[in-house]
Design a protein that fits this description.
single chain, 192 residues, alpha/beta, Rossmann fold, eight-stranded mixed β-sheet, 6 helices, 10 strands, 34% strand, globular, binds guanosine-5'-monophosphate
């Protein structure tokens, strides 16, 4: 997605070898027109699939998932990061290691909102090693729901998550795949 790639090039800040900050339009301030265009692009890419729900994880995934779901005309469900495993009622639960915070979160989804009848599109902002997506996949599969696809805004192609998920057979669409990025020069190279 050209518009997105240009925004990353102009506004992205390469903090370290493997952390990119895009706080000006995605992760802190949110550019609503851009996010809407991203949502439309996901809806177009997955238009042939019988999706009835978009699933993401709080917090940064929510705006993107909302935009995709609005274009698909379906609800979103976001997995919640629980402070402690205080299981109220019937929930699916897993543990996710946060790439940016380097800590482990318990993550939950209520059984009320994902079930065996659902056909789910999973959305997230970044894909690095795939821990967040693996957690979402695990809970979705435990629910017996069908994963129709996975949509990512920025995949860091030099980390293993994308390759592993494609090898496992999931339909993964990333709107920008970064092949390399250099904190010293600020240069970003995309996979074409
Ligand atoms: P993974 O679980 O695939 O290792 O990492 C993905 C999650 O970590 C995403 O939900 C995202 O919030 C966060 N993340 C991973 N890499 C980056 C990055 O370079 N920049 C930002 N802002 N978030 C990242």
């Amino acid at each position: 997605m050209q518009l997105l790639k240009e925004r990353i090039k102009h506004e992205g800040i390469i903090k370290t070898d493997d952390v990119l900050k895009v706080d000006s339009f995605l992760n802190h301030q949110v550019d609503t027109a851009l996010i809407d265009a991203i949502g439309a692009e996901f809806a177009r890419l997955f238009s042939g699939r019988p999706i009835n729900k978009v699933l993401t994880i709080e917090a940064s995934g929510i705006a993107i998932a909302y935009a995709a779901a609005r274009h698909l005309n379906v609800p979103i469900v976001f997995a919640k990061k629980a402070q402690s495993i205080n299981l109220e009622g019937d929930v699916y639960t897993t543990r996710v290691e946060s790439f940016t915070h380097r800590r482990i979160f318990d993550v939950i989804i209520s059984k009320k909102y994902v079930s065996g009848d659902d056909h789910v599109l999973i959305i997230d902002d970044f894909l690095a090693n795939g821990c967040a997506l693996n957690g979402l996949i695990e809970m979705t599969e435990e629910a017996g729901a069908t994963i129709e696809g996975i949509g990512i805004v920025i995949e860091k192609g030099f980390q293993q998550g994308g390759r592993t998920l494609r090898e496992r057979g999931y339909r993964l669409e990333s709107l920008a795949i970064i092949e390399s990025m250099d904190p010293a020069t600020g240069q970003i190279v995309y996979r074409s």
